[in-house]
Amino acid sequence: MQEQRHPILMDGRGLAAEIRQDMAARVAARGVGVRPPCLAVIQVGDVAASNIYVRNKRKACQEVGFQSIGISLEAEASQAELEERILHLNEDSGVDGILLQLPLPRHLDVDRLLALIDPAKDVDGFHPLNMGRLVLGRPGLAACTPRGILTLLHHYKVPLAGRRAVILGRSAIVGKPLAAMLLNADATVTIAHSRTEGLAQLAAEAEVLVAAVGRAEFVTPAMVHPGATVVDVGINRLEDGRIVGDVRADVARVAGMISPVPGGIGPMTIASLLENTWESFRSRHLAR
Ligand code: GUN
User: Fold this and answer.
1) What is the pLDDT of residues 64-96, one digit of tens each?
2) In terms of C-beta distances under 8 Å and separation of at least 24 residues, what long-range contacts does 191-200 make, across chains too?
3) CA-proximal residue: ligand 1, atom 2 (nearest)
4) Cα gap 213→46, rounded to integer Å
């Protein structure tokens, strides 16, 4: 019988819990008379996945002692109303972070709304100024999912400098900011996407492979270099209700390390949101 390989599981759930503990301790030690950090989350309409994400973000805030403000607007909310809400939160000195949950209903101009958020409160890192800073390798608030991925890779001491990293997916939320972060960590980075020719072959050359395509079980063992580190960013709900990633379970036979779904990148994303909110709070209220 062939020997069964067991990759190292990158435990995002466990690491995120450690980060929350550390955050709770920092909140508790913030000093007498200093208010806790505060995150405002704006949700428009009633998208089932967004309901879950927003609930988890607020729950995490509560757990570490952050205040959170939930602003829930009807799906028909106007562009003008959203702009007014954002400007109001920008001016509110009691708010450190502003998060606009995506996707938004189609009648809203998402680019304009994201650009209206004060870059110093842009805890999602989606403002063009923060994206630009990231690409230039300058300090700034960086997108939560890529930040969580880097934190997990560093925790597991995955070498990046000089290594071949392939990202599947070119979204503004994951693929593009992650490419900038991996490049800043001196990896050799390729982004592959739906128009890429020879995607499977490219993927199979990666020492670090990140799947962020939003397609259930897209990555097969043939697309993975033996011993590679595989990061699964997908959260896909199957018809039978099961949640699976973008990576097929049997990739575990070839990978050296792999992040599970659930329990991998999802919790790390929320931990990064807390870190960003803390950093925004600290630069506003505490001496460094
Ligand atoms: N929708 C899916 N992922 C995200 C995220 O990281 N931030 C926001 N605001 N919306 C999302």
Assistant:
1) 999 999 999 999 999 999 999 999 999 999 999
2) 191/166, 191/167, 192/166, 192/167, 192/168, 193/168, 193/169, 199/168, 199/223
3) 102
4) 23
For a substitution probing ligand 1, which of 102, 147, 236 has the most ligand atoms within 8 Å of its CB? 102
Q: Chain-centre distance of CA 164, in angstroms?
A: 21
Using left for φ > 0, alpha for ψ between -120 and 50, and beta otherwise, residue 99 falls in beta
Q: Are 71 and 42 in contact (CB under 8 A)?
A: yes
Task: Tell me which residues are annotated as active site.
Answer: 57, 101, 124
Question: 236: which strand partners?
Answer: 244
Verify whether ligand 1 is closer than 6 Å to residue 144 (CB atom).
yes
Task: Give the mean model confidence (pLDDT) for residues 6-10.
Answer: 93
Contact 202, 166 (CB under 8 A): yes
Q: What confidence category does residue 227 fall into, taking pLDDT thresholds of 50, 70 and 90?
A: very high
Share of the chain above pLDDT 70, in %: 98
Give me the torsion for CA of 16, 20, 26, 32, rounded to 10°.
160
Q: Is 47 in the pocket of ligand 1 (CB under 6 A)?
A: no
What is the β-pairing status of strands 67-73 and 188-192? Answer: unpaired
Q: Tell me which residue of 131, 141, 205, 132 sits closest to 168, measured CA to CA.
A: 205
pLDDT reading at 3 higher than 90: no
